[in-house]
Amino acid sequence: MATFTSTLPDNLLKLLAEKAEALSVPKNKLIENALRLYLEHLEKAEYIKSYKRAAQDKEVMEIAEEGLAEYLKQLSK
Q: How many angstroms separate the CA atoms of 45 and 19, rounded?
């Protein structure tokens, strides 16, 4: 595991210390979990953005509709 050093505003460090104590977890674990959740959030936001772009693309929508029509035919068999 690598070591990472950073600076944070005093008020954020105070909140971090308070939450870590309240949850009985080390501050580094709280930061690790928060960072993991935030990175997952960013990844989901990118997927949403790409789907919104695709929804505006007429060609992509036609391909999706054709695929869905074929899927529905297979389900009805």
A: 27
| Residue whose token pair is 């080390």 | 26
Q: What is the C-alpha separation between 28 and 16, in angstroms, rounded?
A: 9
pLDDT single digits (tens) 8-56? 999 999 999 999 999 999 999 999 999 999 999 999 999 898 888 877 8
Q: Among positive and negative, which fits the CA dihedral 63, 65, 71, 74?
A: negative
pLDDT single digits (tens) 53-69: 877 888 877 887 777 77
The domain ranges of the chain are 10-76
Cα separation of 70 and 75, whole Å?
Answer: 9
